[in-house]
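To close the section, here is one more complete example, presented without commentary so you can practise reading it yourself. The ligand is flavin-adenine dinucleotide.
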Amino acid sequence: MNSLINAIIIGAGHNGLTCAAYLARAGQSVLVLEAAAEVGGLARNRIVANGEQLSSAAHLLHSLPQDIIKDLQLEKYGLHYAAQHLKTVSLNKNGATIVLNKQLAMGDQLSSADLLGYDRFYLDMQRFSKALLPVLGKVAPEIAIEDWRQKLDLLGLGWSIRKLGTFYMREFLRIIGMNLYDLMDEYIENTQLKAAIAMDALLGSEWGARSMGSVLTYLYRQAGELRNNTGLALPRGGMGTVSQAIAKSARQSGADIRCNSPVKHIIIENNKAVGVVLETGEEIYADTVISNADPKQTFLKLINPDHLGTNFVRQVNNLRAKGKAGKLHLVLSQKPSFTGLDDSLLGERLVIAPGMDDIELAFNPSKYKRYPDSPILEIILPSVRDDSLCQNGQQLLSAVVQYLPYDDSTNEDQNRTAMLRVVIETLEEYAPGISDLIITAELLTPRDIEREFGISGGHWHHVELVFESFLFNRPTPLLTRHATPIDNLLLCGASCHPGGNLMGIAGRNAAQQVLRGEK
Ligand SMILES: Cc1cc2nc3c(=O)[nH]c(=O)nc-3n(C[C@H](O)[C@H](O)[C@H](O)COP(=O)(O)OP(=O)(O)OC[C@H]3O[C@@H](n4cnc5c(N)ncnc54)[C@H](O)[C@@H]3O)c2cc1C
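Output:
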């Protein structure tokens, strides 16, 4: 069927928007249909009390590559930073904080062996993360295919690992499937330091530090940061401004973006996607349909299963997609004070993860759909760095609360309320008096995130980032390189290689596949 629109993109998450921007820049007519009232998906702002805004789910920018920022002229369209290169500060109830600033670890309780061990660990992990770079930004090459471009990409990865030299290549192959818990034992003794490092591997993941493959997720996160030169950054005005900048860039190139337009199903004729039907009943046709929704939404809700094989439906059903990251938002009447934390560090990334066993103890209950007694937290106070966010001296606190179960019980509301109390009690142990400063408090559980953002399981990466769903197997062997069993239907979201976090790479690569005619 001939249509006037080249591509319909379902979903205006940052990947859908990035895909739209690249396609529109290449002269394609693009229509983005977003279910929510605003663009951005997990990277949009949220109004809390008094109209104050903060980042709704994602709150720290660390992996958006410079080439995408440049190509889409995001700084021209509103991406500005309130802070860059944030340090990581591990809080301690007794005031013994540890500060990580790139290669440097600081803390009175750290022995010289720990300091040297951290230095060695940092340099080794940087070296290994760099080895992953040749494939991080590209469409994942298939392992067995007669295509010269994919062969070159695979060779690039092989060469990059070989280039490490015999010792480090062997070391890379030894550690890549290991768990971070065991690996860090080879370098560092101090458990608080190890726990602070482990946060990068665990946030958003379903697993604990002792789970196999946690080294891979750690390296993956570090590799993402290598493609960006801002370090951990706070976008001025909240994460929503990043998505809005991408949307502006896409619109400027001619893309049409419609919010409040949920897609009800994808129209398929002769095994080809030819358009979509909106919840309103409106039918829109296009040459290509690209889904920024997660695979479960796309294939189990938007497509009649008659178009898909049983084996495929089973694989999609079995995808690991039960999120374990929740989100806490507080409006505070004034700046809180954390025990032992110098005021100058209040605007950094603060973590509550006292030790490796505490991480495991927080993780264990979530395996049995129970909530942790002492949650692991990644906290930022964005208003300390960004005066555009809050008025009258009030402050915003945003925290990822790791290891909340995906709760589909009938007690969900009571459980959320009880957990909110536990999180605030935990904060109180580190920042005595903080409870008295709270004007508004809300906790989003993975199930709330599923409902509010339209993501199955409320998962950070849409599909868990694990060995069986990595590189040429992401998200499953039947769904690689953005292609699907339906012709002219592609995926462009976090479930594609290289996965979640604000990277935009999956969106850009999906656009490239369309432009190459690989659909
Ligand atoms: C609690 C939490 C904290 C996080 N913190 C960080 C962080 O600090 N830094 C970081 O880099 N990453 C973070 N992440 C991960 C990051 O937010 C995601 O990986 C990333 O935003 C995914 O982007 P996406 O564009 O692929 O998908 P999404 O952002 O999920 O966008 C998908 C879009 O599709 C839309 N959609 C779905 N179905 C339909 C339909 N039928 N019709 C129309 N539209 C539809 C949805 O409404 C949504 O807008 C966090 C994630 C979570 C859950």
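Once you have examined the tokens, check your reading against these statements. Residues 5-44+63-79+235-319+457-515 form a domain with the FAD/NAD(P)-binding domain fold (CATH 3.50.50.60). The chain is about 35% helix and 20% strand.
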